[in-house]
Amino acid sequence: MNVVNVELAERSYPIFVGAGLREQLDALLGEYLKDRSVFLVTDSNLEKLYLESVAGKLSAVSHSVHTCVFPAGETSKQLSTIEMICRKGVKAGLDRRSVFIALGGGVCGDMTGFSAAIYMRGTRFVQLPTSLLAMVDSSVGGKTGVDLPEGKNLIGAFFQPEAVVIDTDFLKTLPARELSCGYAELIKTAVILDGTLFDMLEKHARDLLNLADAERVSEAVSRCCALKARIVSADEKESSLRAILNYGHTFGHAIESVTGYSLVEHGEGVAIGMCVAAELAVSLGLISGETAARQESLLKTFALPVSIPAGYSAEAIFKAMGTDKKNSGGRLKLILPEEIGRAGIYTDVPVEKIMNAIRKRIGK
Amino acid sequence: MNVVNVELAERSYPIFVGAGLREQLDALLGEYLKDRSVFLVTDSNLEKLYLESVAGKLSAVSHSVHTCVFPAGETSKQLSTIEMICRKGVKAGLDRRSVFIALGGGVCGDMTGFSAAIYMRGTRFVQLPTSLLAMVDSSVGGKTGVDLPEGKNLIGAFFQPEAVVIDTDFLKTLPARELSCGYAELIKTAVILDGTLFDMLEKHARDLLNLADAERVSEAVSRCCALKARIVSADEKESSLRAILNYGHTFGHAIESVTGYSLVEHGEGVAIGMCVAAELAVSLGLISGETAARQESLLKTFALPVSIPAGYSAEAIFKAMGTDKKNSGGRLKLILPEEIGRAGIYTDVPVEKIMNAIRKRIGK
Lengths: 364, 364
Hints:
Chain A is an alpha/beta fold and 364 residues long. Chain A has 14 helices and 11 strands.
């Protein structure tokens, strides 16, 4: 088992990473849960696979376990589901000492965390991420929230969990496409922060994608969490440094948005967004064409898309970038690679250069 | 003008108190607002009275002013209104640097503050309270939120404003019953924290209730804010000390709840709750009957009710106290007076004593 500590003063917490950790929930969380009520929240897919066994483990070590299931899918990620979760919590008699536990992917973690953040103005939160994206992305940073019809994650809170338990065995039941999406986040983190992690991903791509080497998967996940934790510790509320983690996201969100959030998964949007950003970085002379090609090649190896679906206009994508909440004071903030392992924040990129980079990646 | 500073480290903020301050909004907030967009939120009653003039003042000193009006009344205080406010904010192009300004009473402040807390995971918030209760209660403490069908304020956040501007002239258009409700909060604060404020309220009751002496009203409001600020500074998240401010509230909320949130206003519930608490304190030998009578007399002078409406059972009220979120771990926490100017927290009061105190105040 690997342990990553996310250092955030009095809100610091551990991330436990390893294969089969859900069998050790009693040992890992028992002391913390022993006189608390647990509110285990999951979606309708994971309910069938894991709810009973996880609830059983938690029952053995907590005051009581209550469960809540919402319909699987991003369309559940809205305020009405938050209201349902909280009302169910009230009916179960949960108070501020209770612990909300998210058993699921990013949607589940975002909603359970947000519910915990606002339930009686704040209770406790533990994450059991089941998707690779949730393991490496949602587990560090405390970003929680829901979507509005106008855009994703427009409502939410920064709310840190008390602990995260990552059982990489959950990945065995994850659909292949979602597994690839998780690797997009790993590749993104490597490109902006750690060239040696990028090398490792290149070298062991097959084993990682096939989950053939549990040790290697755990290592990749914990290295990614540790890198992200370092950034978040230094800039919890995303005032500056943390923005670097949005590499690929400004373009990615816009692509997800114009394609109606159905054609392109979040991780795929990020993968395409990274390719657009690299295209732009090449045109600005920040990186070589070879570096951009190396990133593109690794994304392809992990079965990720590298171009915008044909039929969408650069204008529409550019416009959709405007409502991304990372843009403050009306200026577009772009994260661009400077080499494999390093990226920078750029705010004065000429619009025409951005448009050209988008155009070059449409239907490629 | 009086200024009360609420000391909360990097979240400290000033409260400006005085007659006619809404005419000085440009001077008070101009420097802060000059390159920010303002989102001015109010209810359908205050819209007619003040929205245009306040928006005009703010327009002169900010980047832009957008407005949002919701239907007046506690029934608006729900998540669907928060969603409406936030969606309107997105459509207006507001970002994380924008400032949400609440022009209104407690409902408006609670909802605007909560919207600001969760809009893009947190923007800015300024309060212009128009009711006496909002001036002395909501202006200090950062409690924001909405109701659920299961109970009041069950969803929310602790979120501090950047500044509060209290123009006591707003009280001139406040209905008499609401003015009395505000004074209930002042009397409550005096009973638990400051005997000399209680003396002052006794001595100048008529002038305060008639708003005949603007200086005196400002003094009472700022003294109450300062007392509350001292407590909140020491215990922002209500882990212990701050609970003292809930004097009258546990009984009060239960009375509001069983009477269906229509018969009894919040301030009236608190007034009645204080009488129940005093009754209980007398029976426990904490205070004399004379002290309880003095509190009751002052509440009556300010046209406040001092007994539970006839026809409701003590059992129902006691049961309703159980879902009050201030009760952690299943133990009922009661705030009881120890003299005029001092109160304590009690967790082991025999149920029969509580029931008797409730019974004694029904239909009295």
